Amino acid sequence: MKSRSPLLAATLVLIGLGLGATLLRDQVPLGAAQTPPAGGAPAAERAARLQNEQNTMDIVRKYEPGLVFISTEQDVVRQDPMGWMYGGGTQTQVQRGVGSGFFVNKAGDILTNYHVVAGEEGAGGEPGAADRITIRLMGREESVPARVIGLAPQYDLALIRAEKLDPSRVTPIPLGNSDALGVGQKAIAMGAPFGLDFSVTEGIVSSASRTIPIGFSASGEGIMQKAIQTDAAINPGNSGGPLLDSGGNVIGINTQIISPGVQAGGVGQSAGVGFAIPINAAKNLLPRLQKAAGGVVTAPLMGVAAGFLVQSPQGVVTAGLSLLGSDAKQELGLPETGLVIGEVTPGSPAARAGLQGGTEKQTFRGAQLATGGDVIVKADGEPVDALEDLQAVLLDKREGDAVTLDVVRGGKTRQVKVTLDASAFR
């Protein structure tokens, strides 16, 4: 993996926002300074509104009906610690979660985060959805069931659709262009923080291209990808909700916050640093999600398998050359960092580009290393030391796009262009 930012690694914690939250119900006394004046609001109040205030109010009034409140339930079987006393060994618990989403078209497709609707993994370790997903619209008391159209864990995105929903109640929110964002422009976050459904906050775009770990890889590591940073307050429950610009267009999908309180042992809460998945990433992925038939959509596959495997408490996992000692790398003629290619899938984009897997296997200290083949050290100019680094570069690629790799073999470095065809997408 690439080294993380010292600030993120040393002092702060990135947390997902889709977890359930306890709603605080304590009543807060209304002080005298907060008491509305007798006779209602001043007559000049509307005229005194700033242009920015009116813009926000207009956007909320028009597009908040497109916001969706999501609830999930997952049946989890756990070992009963007191089972030996009563003759039972297990008990079933229901885990509940809440999050947000929004309509993207008149067909009723709802975009949200994968971690909002995620359930337990399948028997083969494949990602799964919660046992029960329901959605509720603004101004409606009843909830309706929803089904999964497609899951994309590596992108932390999911597409769901409500069943038996009156089409007249579907209000799509237009999708904008996150590539055109400017630092300092207005950002409006909609969602359900702490279960307070249909809430709105406002701030600015603090950074248009922050790189953070998003999504869920097979090894459990986050995949580094670009995100929008905003100071619009987002909190647990805001996950999957839209981040809008001053034109009412969705520019991002709220996904994470930096929360110093978590490391201090407290509850995750906003510290004025939140992140959203750029909407262009979701737009690129949307056609694949719509065709997924309830299945999983993955990042484009180049057709290479890692050739450096190490033993960990979780079992055998892939690793980058940064974990190998310098003496061993020097003896084997390997670069300091890089992704060792163990195998190349026949007929894949990597095979057509001439990439080669290892021809010999070295075993030492519980690790296995394929040598004699290629080592990827860069992809489109970005350093590569693990499969997740390569996936991060491939995430926003489409069919026909090319990836330029810096590859080392036999101590010599060369550039290889790999073109992604239909076989890279499944």
TrEMBL record:
Q: Which SUPFAM superfamilies match?
A: PDZ domain-like, Trypsin-like serine proteases
In terms of Gene3D superfamilies, this protein maps to: 2.30.42.10, 2.40.10.120
Task: Enumerate the PROSITE patterns for this protein.
Answer: PDZ
Q: Does the keyword Hydrolase apply?
A: yes
Its keywords, alphabetically, are:
Hydrolase, Protease
Superkingdom of this protein's organism: Bacteria
Is the Magnesium keyword given for this protein? no
Assigned EC number: 3.4.21.-
List the molecular function annotations (GO) for this entry.
peptidase activity
Looking up Pfam families in the UniProt record yields: PDZ_2, Trypsin_2
* Record-level GO BP terms: proteolysis
- Name the InterPro entries on file: Chloro_Bact_Ser_Proteases (IPR051201), PDZ (IPR001478), PDZ_sf (IPR036034), Peptidase_S1_PA (IPR009003), Peptidase_S1C (IPR001940)
Residues in domain PDZ? 309-411
Kindly provide the name given to this protein in its UniProt entry: S1C family serine protease
From which organism does this entry originate? Deinococcus hohokamensis
